[in-house]
Amino acid sequence: MTTLHARAGRRCHNMVNPLHSTVYFSPDTGEELAALGITDPRAVYFTTRAAAFGAVGPGVVAATFYSFDHALIARHLPAAWRTATPQQVLDARLRAADRTLRRLLGEEAVASAEMAEAAELALRATEACERGARPLYAAHADLPVPEEPHLALWHAATLLREHRGDGHLAALMGAGLTGLEAQVSHTATGKGMSPKWALGTRGYTREDWTAAQERLRARGLLDADGELTEEGVALRRAIEEDTDRRDRAPYEHLGAAGVERLTELGTVFSGAALQAGAFPADMFGKG
Protein backbone atom coordinates (compact mmCIF):
# COMPACT_ATOMS: atom_id res chain seq x y z
CA MET A 1 0.00 0.00 0.00
CA THR A 2 1.17 3.52 -0.68
CA THR A 3 -0.46 5.62 2.03
CA LEU A 4 -0.57 3.33 5.06
CA HIS A 5 1.19 0.33 6.53
CA ALA A 6 1.01 -2.71 4.27
CA ARG A 7 -1.02 -4.78 6.75
CA ALA A 8 -3.24 -2.01 8.09
CA GLY A 9 -6.06 -2.95 5.74
CA ARG A 10 -5.86 -6.59 6.83
CA ARG A 11 -6.01 -5.62 10.50
CA CYS A 12 -8.97 -3.35 9.84
CA HIS A 13 -10.77 -6.10 7.95
CA ASN A 14 -10.10 -8.58 10.75
CA MET A 15 -11.73 -6.25 13.27
CA VAL A 16 -14.76 -5.37 11.14
CA ASN A 17 -15.49 -8.73 9.53
CA PRO A 18 -16.75 -10.44 12.72
CA LEU A 19 -19.65 -7.99 12.85
CA HIS A 20 -20.89 -9.45 9.58
CA SER A 21 -20.02 -13.05 10.40
CA THR A 22 -22.10 -13.10 13.59
CA VAL A 23 -25.25 -13.77 11.55
CA TYR A 24 -23.99 -17.18 10.40
CA PHE A 25 -23.76 -18.44 13.98
CA SER A 26 -26.73 -16.58 15.41
CA PRO A 27 -29.88 -18.36 16.61
CA ASP A 28 -31.75 -15.30 15.36
CA THR A 29 -30.83 -16.20 11.77
CA GLY A 30 -32.09 -19.74 12.24
CA GLU A 31 -35.36 -18.46 13.68
CA GLU A 32 -35.90 -15.95 10.88
CA LEU A 33 -35.24 -18.54 8.18
CA ALA A 34 -37.31 -21.19 9.96
CA ALA A 35 -40.26 -18.79 9.79
CA LEU A 36 -39.86 -18.98 6.01
CA GLY A 37 -39.68 -22.78 6.06
CA ILE A 38 -35.89 -23.17 5.74
CA THR A 39 -34.65 -25.12 8.75
CA ASP A 40 -31.54 -27.10 7.80
CA PRO A 41 -28.45 -25.18 9.05
CA ARG A 42 -26.58 -25.70 5.76
CA ALA A 43 -29.55 -24.48 3.74
CA VAL A 44 -29.75 -21.45 6.04
CA TYR A 45 -26.11 -20.61 5.36
CA PHE A 46 -26.21 -21.18 1.62
CA THR A 47 -29.37 -19.16 1.11
CA THR A 48 -28.49 -16.25 3.40
CA ARG A 49 -25.07 -15.75 1.82
CA ALA A 50 -26.09 -16.45 -1.80
CA ALA A 51 -29.48 -14.69 -1.86
CA ALA A 52 -27.94 -11.55 -3.36
CA PHE A 53 -27.32 -13.57 -6.54
CA GLY A 54 -30.98 -14.48 -6.93
CA ALA A 55 -32.24 -18.07 -7.20
CA VAL A 56 -28.93 -19.61 -8.23
CA GLY A 57 -28.03 -23.28 -8.25
CA PRO A 58 -25.16 -25.18 -6.64
CA GLY A 59 -22.62 -24.37 -9.36
CA VAL A 60 -22.57 -20.64 -8.64
CA VAL A 61 -22.32 -21.24 -4.90
CA ALA A 62 -19.56 -23.84 -5.24
CA ALA A 63 -17.58 -21.44 -7.43
CA THR A 64 -17.97 -18.38 -5.24
CA PHE A 65 -17.87 -19.99 -1.77
CA TYR A 66 -14.93 -22.17 -2.93
CA SER A 67 -14.38 -24.43 0.10
CA PHE A 68 -17.68 -26.35 0.11
CA ASP A 69 -18.35 -29.70 -1.53
CA HIS A 70 -20.62 -29.29 -4.56
CA ALA A 71 -22.69 -32.34 -3.60
CA LEU A 72 -23.55 -30.80 -0.23
CA ILE A 73 -24.68 -27.57 -1.85
CA ALA A 74 -26.75 -29.48 -4.43
CA ARG A 75 -28.72 -31.14 -1.63
CA HIS A 76 -30.09 -27.71 -0.69
CA LEU A 77 -30.02 -25.55 -3.81
CA PRO A 78 -32.00 -24.75 -5.86
CA ALA A 79 -34.65 -26.61 -3.82
CA ALA A 80 -34.60 -24.02 -1.01
CA TRP A 81 -35.70 -21.30 -3.44
CA ARG A 82 -38.99 -23.16 -3.85
CA THR A 83 -39.54 -22.60 -0.13
CA ALA A 84 -38.54 -18.94 0.07
CA THR A 85 -37.57 -16.36 -2.53
CA PRO A 86 -34.15 -14.68 -2.44
CA GLN A 87 -35.78 -11.37 -1.47
CA GLN A 88 -37.58 -13.02 1.44
CA VAL A 89 -34.26 -14.47 2.57
CA LEU A 90 -32.49 -11.12 2.26
CA ASP A 91 -35.21 -9.45 4.33
CA ALA A 92 -34.98 -12.21 6.94
CA ARG A 93 -31.18 -11.91 7.03
CA LEU A 94 -31.40 -8.17 7.72
CA ARG A 95 -33.91 -8.77 10.51
CA ALA A 96 -31.55 -11.37 11.95
CA ALA A 97 -28.62 -8.94 11.76
CA ASP A 98 -30.68 -6.34 13.62
CA ARG A 99 -31.67 -8.80 16.35
CA THR A 100 -28.17 -10.24 16.62
CA LEU A 101 -26.31 -6.96 16.94
CA ARG A 102 -28.80 -5.59 19.45
CA ARG A 103 -28.49 -8.75 21.53
CA LEU A 104 -24.69 -9.00 21.38
CA LEU A 105 -23.79 -5.31 21.67
CA GLY A 106 -26.69 -3.87 23.61
CA GLU A 107 -29.03 -1.04 22.80
CA GLU A 108 -26.68 1.65 24.09
CA ALA A 109 -23.91 0.63 21.70
CA VAL A 110 -26.32 0.28 18.79
CA ALA A 111 -27.58 3.83 19.33
CA SER A 112 -24.16 5.34 20.07
CA ALA A 113 -22.32 8.05 18.18
CA GLU A 114 -19.44 5.58 17.80
CA MET A 115 -21.69 3.20 15.91
CA ALA A 116 -22.72 5.94 13.50
CA GLU A 117 -19.08 6.94 13.08
CA ALA A 118 -18.02 3.36 12.34
CA ALA A 119 -20.80 3.00 9.78
CA GLU A 120 -19.75 6.21 8.04
CA LEU A 121 -16.10 5.16 7.91
CA ALA A 122 -16.85 1.65 6.67
CA LEU A 123 -19.21 2.91 3.98
CA ARG A 124 -16.60 5.41 2.87
CA ALA A 125 -14.09 2.59 2.46
CA THR A 126 -16.52 0.65 0.27
CA GLU A 127 -16.62 3.55 -2.21
CA ALA A 128 -13.32 2.27 -3.63
CA CYS A 129 -14.30 -1.39 -3.91
CA GLU A 130 -14.24 -2.81 -7.45
CA ARG A 131 -16.90 -5.07 -8.97
CA GLY A 132 -14.72 -6.63 -11.67
CA ALA A 133 -14.03 -10.36 -11.08
CA ARG A 134 -15.59 -10.08 -7.60
CA PRO A 135 -18.97 -11.79 -7.89
CA LEU A 136 -19.98 -12.00 -4.23
CA TYR A 137 -19.01 -8.39 -3.62
CA ALA A 138 -20.69 -7.20 -6.82
CA ALA A 139 -23.97 -8.95 -5.98
CA HIS A 140 -24.08 -7.41 -2.51
CA ALA A 141 -23.04 -3.99 -3.79
CA ASP A 142 -26.33 -3.85 -5.70
CA LEU A 143 -28.33 -4.11 -2.45
CA PRO A 144 -29.62 -0.94 -0.75
CA VAL A 145 -27.78 0.49 2.24
CA PRO A 146 -29.91 0.20 5.40
CA GLU A 147 -30.77 3.45 7.15
CA GLU A 148 -30.03 2.49 10.76
CA PRO A 149 -26.33 2.95 11.56
CA HIS A 150 -25.75 -0.52 13.05
CA LEU A 151 -27.29 -2.13 9.97
CA ALA A 152 -25.40 0.22 7.66
CA LEU A 153 -22.20 -0.90 9.41
CA TRP A 154 -23.25 -4.52 9.02
CA HIS A 155 -23.92 -3.94 5.32
CA ALA A 156 -20.56 -2.21 4.84
CA ALA A 157 -18.82 -5.03 6.71
CA THR A 158 -20.51 -7.44 4.31
CA LEU A 159 -19.20 -5.54 1.30
CA LEU A 160 -15.66 -5.34 2.69
CA ARG A 161 -15.74 -9.03 3.62
CA GLU A 162 -16.86 -10.21 0.20
CA HIS A 163 -14.51 -7.82 -1.62
CA ARG A 164 -11.52 -9.21 0.26
CA GLY A 165 -12.87 -12.74 0.00
CA ASP A 166 -13.24 -12.63 -3.77
CA GLY A 167 -9.64 -11.39 -4.04
CA HIS A 168 -8.51 -14.09 -1.63
CA LEU A 169 -9.97 -16.80 -3.87
CA ALA A 170 -7.97 -15.42 -6.79
CA ALA A 171 -4.85 -15.61 -4.61
CA LEU A 172 -5.64 -19.22 -3.63
CA MET A 173 -6.14 -20.23 -7.24
CA GLY A 174 -2.91 -18.49 -8.16
CA ALA A 175 -1.18 -20.58 -5.50
CA GLY A 176 -2.63 -23.76 -7.01
CA LEU A 177 -4.81 -24.68 -4.03
CA THR A 178 -8.24 -26.23 -4.39
CA GLY A 179 -10.94 -25.18 -1.96
CA LEU A 180 -10.33 -28.17 0.29
CA GLU A 181 -6.54 -27.82 0.11
CA ALA A 182 -6.90 -24.17 1.05
CA GLN A 183 -9.01 -25.21 4.04
CA VAL A 184 -6.54 -27.88 5.15
CA SER A 185 -3.52 -25.60 4.83
CA HIS A 186 -5.28 -22.76 6.63
CA THR A 187 -6.21 -25.08 9.48
CA ALA A 188 -2.55 -26.12 9.68
CA THR A 189 -1.63 -22.49 10.45
CA GLY A 190 -3.61 -22.74 13.69
CA LYS A 191 -5.76 -19.77 12.65
CA GLY A 192 -8.28 -21.52 10.41
CA MET A 193 -11.41 -23.48 11.16
CA SER A 194 -10.73 -26.66 13.12
CA PRO A 195 -11.04 -30.01 11.28
CA LYS A 196 -14.13 -30.79 13.37
CA TRP A 197 -15.90 -27.67 12.15
CA ALA A 198 -14.57 -27.85 8.61
CA LEU A 199 -15.71 -31.44 8.16
CA GLY A 200 -19.01 -30.73 9.89
CA THR A 201 -19.91 -27.78 7.69
CA ARG A 202 -18.10 -28.11 4.35
CA GLY A 203 -19.47 -31.49 3.24
CA TYR A 204 -16.15 -33.32 2.97
CA THR A 205 -15.31 -36.66 4.54
CA ARG A 206 -12.31 -37.54 6.68
CA GLU A 207 -11.00 -39.45 3.65
CA ASP A 208 -11.28 -36.31 1.53
CA TRP A 209 -9.35 -34.38 4.18
CA THR A 210 -6.62 -37.02 4.38
CA ALA A 211 -6.28 -37.12 0.59
CA ALA A 212 -5.88 -33.33 0.51
CA GLN A 213 -3.18 -33.57 3.18
CA GLU A 214 -1.35 -36.14 1.04
CA ARG A 215 -1.45 -33.83 -1.98
CA LEU A 216 -0.04 -31.00 0.13
CA ARG A 217 2.70 -33.30 1.43
CA ALA A 218 3.60 -34.23 -2.13
CA ARG A 219 4.11 -30.52 -2.82
CA GLY A 220 6.31 -30.17 0.24
CA LEU A 221 3.80 -27.95 2.05
CA LEU A 222 2.89 -30.29 4.94
CA ASP A 223 5.09 -32.60 6.99
CA ALA A 224 4.27 -36.11 8.19
CA ASP A 225 2.41 -34.73 11.24
CA GLY A 226 0.19 -32.45 9.18
CA GLU A 227 2.09 -29.31 10.17
CA LEU A 228 3.14 -26.69 7.65
CA THR A 229 6.69 -26.98 6.42
CA GLU A 230 8.82 -23.87 5.90
CA GLU A 231 7.63 -23.88 2.29
CA GLY A 232 4.03 -24.20 3.47
CA VAL A 233 4.41 -21.30 5.89
CA ALA A 234 5.93 -19.20 3.13
CA LEU A 235 3.09 -20.05 0.74
CA ARG A 236 0.39 -19.13 3.25
CA ARG A 237 2.21 -15.86 3.98
CA ALA A 238 2.46 -15.10 0.27
CA ILE A 239 -1.26 -15.79 -0.17
CA GLU A 240 -2.17 -13.30 2.55
CA GLU A 241 0.17 -10.68 1.11
CA ASP A 242 -1.32 -11.24 -2.36
CA THR A 243 -4.78 -10.84 -0.84
CA ASP A 244 -3.67 -7.60 0.83
CA ARG A 245 -2.57 -6.22 -2.53
CA ARG A 246 -5.85 -7.14 -4.17
CA ASP A 247 -7.79 -5.55 -1.31
CA ARG A 248 -5.82 -2.34 -0.80
CA ALA A 249 -8.13 0.10 -2.61
CA PRO A 250 -10.85 0.51 0.09
CA TYR A 251 -8.31 1.20 2.82
CA GLU A 252 -6.15 3.53 0.74
CA HIS A 253 -9.34 5.43 -0.09
CA LEU A 254 -10.23 5.68 3.59
CA GLY A 255 -6.72 6.86 4.48
CA ALA A 256 -4.42 6.03 7.36
CA ALA A 257 -6.33 8.00 10.00
CA GLY A 258 -9.67 6.59 8.91
CA VAL A 259 -8.34 3.03 8.85
CA GLU A 260 -6.87 3.46 12.32
CA ARG A 261 -10.15 4.80 13.70
CA LEU A 262 -12.29 2.13 12.01
CA THR A 263 -9.93 -0.55 13.34
CA GLU A 264 -10.28 0.92 16.83
CA LEU A 265 -14.07 1.01 16.67
CA GLY A 266 -14.26 -2.42 15.07
CA THR A 267 -12.08 -3.83 17.83
CA VAL A 268 -14.46 -2.50 20.47
CA PHE A 269 -17.64 -3.77 18.80
CA SER A 270 -16.24 -7.11 17.66
CA GLY A 271 -14.66 -7.63 21.06
CA ALA A 272 -18.02 -7.10 22.71
CA ALA A 273 -19.64 -9.56 20.31
CA LEU A 274 -16.97 -12.17 21.05
CA GLN A 275 -17.37 -11.68 24.80
CA ALA A 276 -21.12 -12.15 24.38
CA GLY A 277 -20.56 -15.57 22.79
CA ALA A 278 -21.06 -14.72 19.12
CA PHE A 279 -18.93 -17.66 17.94
CA PRO A 280 -18.42 -21.25 19.14
CA ALA A 281 -15.36 -21.57 21.39
CA ASP A 282 -13.97 -24.59 19.53
CA MET A 283 -14.41 -23.28 16.01
CA PHE A 284 -10.78 -22.32 15.34
CA GLY A 285 -7.51 -24.17 15.80
CA LYS A 286 -5.89 -27.46 14.83
CA GLY A 287 -7.87 -29.67 17.18
From TrEMBL:
InterPro entries listed in its UniProt record: HTH_67 (IPR054058)
Classification lineage: Bacteria, Bacillati, Actinomycetota, Actinomycetes, Kitasatosporales
Protein name in the entry: SalK
